[in-house]
Specification:
By secondary structure, this protein is of the alpha+beta class. The protein folds into 2 domains: 5-81, Roll (Ubiquitin-like (UB roll)); 90-156, Orthogonal Bundle (DNA polymerase, domain 1), CATH 1.10.150.120. It has helices at 27-34, 90-97, 107-120, 126-133, 143-156, and strands at residues 5-12, 15-22, 53-56, 59-62, 75-77. It has a 5-stranded mixed beta sheet, sandwiched between helices.
Length: 158
Amino acid sequence: MTSQEITVALEVNGHTTTVTAMADTPLLLILRNDLQLNGPKYGCGLGECGACTVIIDGVAARSCVFPLAGAADRQIVTLEGLGTRADPHPVQQAFIDEQAAQCGYCLNGMIMTAKALLDRIPHPSETQIRNELSANLCRCGTHIEILRAVLRAARQTP
């Protein structure tokens, strides 16, 4: 079966935009190429590493395997939708405070997954955090700092 071109209204970071592309185009390509949002990264392209994670309707999702057709009428949040350099989101600030980055490639996925977790469970246990982040890959080995960052963000949540 071949994909067909569709026009979709997307709500990304609180702004609505219209995009025309093939129905099966990965959302990641639309976000990066059409909307110029560089938070979600292309990692494995198979939904396995987490670098492309965005939040769709409150749930962390792998945008590299999420088709454009499935994004219509959904609320999409990327890293750019969380905070700014001048006013970072508490999860972003916790990652900064804990120096939870080396190369930084995994950070988008780690931060977006942590944000979705903290929205669901404001004060998760260390085990819950580990389980939630277990499918996000970090080649640099900053797992301890990442765990500390999520715990810090949870402590700062009212």
